[in-house]
């Protein structure tokens, strides 16, 4: 079974308060054309009113627009149809906000929780508008803090998967120092937490033009016994399963023979 374990429904004519099941069925149709058997649907936690205040900055505050209970009504309608879909949430890790994040996550029995680091000391890692702030911070501090926060996210026990785990490369800028030690330390933290790492093919559609993370990071995770999930990070139906042939080839080259998906917070492994 090949599962696209990370996709979003958000770029279309609907909101989390009025998704029709037919919109989800469009994603399933694309999945079938790419030999993807199961979907893992997530919303960004910051889209919901109940998450207001958990992320830094006006960018996040202005996107907390929708009622969680209205979205969960859609989730329950979809689940009643027994579609090959798991429903999770993508939640940002922010140091000091762990208790609030835990309260937000406890509002629903998600199938899985993706943990992301999108902000480093209040600066958006992948926000084009925060480019001047990233330059002011400097690449060395950005990368070192990113990996430190990633390990804090892993240690928090809040998440099942660490997503797009070398995100600072998104605009094509490399770290100004070797990252092998960061890969090894983070892989070890993941192994100790029994948490998965994500192979995310969205990087193929970004300026960097490559999968997250780099082969050396995946190889370190594989050597440490860290499970891996595979996700397109699609935000629209046409990108479901995008780049999966490349992603599967990469995983195999790094020593992985299986990938995981989740149902009811239980990890299920399937051969690649």
Summarize the structure in words.
The protein has 272 residues and is an alpha/beta fold. The protein has one domain (3-271): TIM Barrel, CATH 3.20.20. It contains 9 helices and 11 strands. It has helices at 21-33, 57-61, 68-80, 98-105, 131-137, 139-156, 180-193, 215-223, 244-253, and strands at 3-7, 38-44, 85-92, 112-116, 119-120, 123-124, 161-162, 196-200, 228-231, 258-263, 266-271. The strands form 3 sheets. The chain has a 7-stranded parallel β-sheet. The radius of gyration is 17 Å and the shape is globular. The model has no long low-confidence stretch (mean pLDDT 97).
- Under CATH, the homologous superfamily reads Metal-dependent hydrolases
Overall pLDDT, averaged? 97
Structural class: alpha/beta
How would you sum up the global shape?
Answer: globular
CATH architecture group name: Alpha-Beta Barrel
Helix content: 25-40%
User: Which H/E pattern describes the elements?
Assistant: EHEHHEHEEEHHEHEHEHEE
The main β sheet shows up as: 7 strands, parallel
Radius of gyration: 17 Å
Tally of discrete structural domains? 1
Query: Strand portion, in percent?
Result: 15-25%
Number of distinct helices: 9
**Low-pLDDT residue spans:** none
- Taking the alpha carbons of the first and last residues, their distance comes to 8 Å
Strand order, largest beta sheet: 1-2-3-4-7-8-9
Q: What is the total tally of β strands?
A: 11
Give the CATH topology: TIM Barrel
Can you identify the CATH class? Alpha Beta
């Amino acid at each position: 079974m090949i599962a696209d374990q990370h996709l979003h429904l958000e770029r279309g004519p609907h909101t989390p308060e009025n998704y029709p099941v037919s919109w989800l069925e469009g994603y399933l149709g694309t999945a079938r054309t790419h030999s993807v058997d199961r979907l893992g649907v997530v919303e960004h936690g910051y889209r919901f009113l109940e998450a207001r205040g958990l992320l830094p900055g006006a960018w996040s505050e202005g996107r907390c627009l929708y009622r969680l209970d209205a979205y969960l009504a859609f989730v329950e309608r979809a689940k009643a149809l027994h579609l090959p879909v798991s429903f999770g949430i993508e939640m940002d890790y922010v140091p000091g906000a762990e208790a609030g994040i835990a309260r937000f996550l406890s509002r629903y029995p998600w199938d899985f929780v993706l943990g992301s680091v999108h902000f480093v000391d209040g600066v958006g890692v992948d926000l084009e508008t925060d480019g001047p702030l990233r330059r002011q911070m400097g690449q060395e501090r950005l990368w070192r803090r990113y990996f430190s926060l990633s390990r804090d996210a892993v240690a928090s026990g809040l998440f099942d998967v660490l997503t797009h785990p070398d995100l600072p490369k998104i605009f094509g800028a490399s770290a100004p120092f070797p990252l092998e030690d960061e890969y090894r330390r983070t892989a070890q933290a993941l192994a100790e937490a029994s948490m998965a790492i994500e192979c995310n093919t969205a990087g193929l559609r970004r300026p960097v033009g490559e999968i997250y993370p780099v082969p050396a990071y995946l190889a370190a995770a594989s050597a440490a016994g860290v499970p891996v999930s595979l996700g397109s990070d699609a935000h629209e139906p046409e990108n479901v399963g995008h780049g999966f042939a490349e992603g599967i080839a990469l995983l195999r080259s790094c020593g992985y023979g299986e990938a995981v998906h989740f149902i009811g917070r239980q990890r299920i492994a399937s051969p690649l």
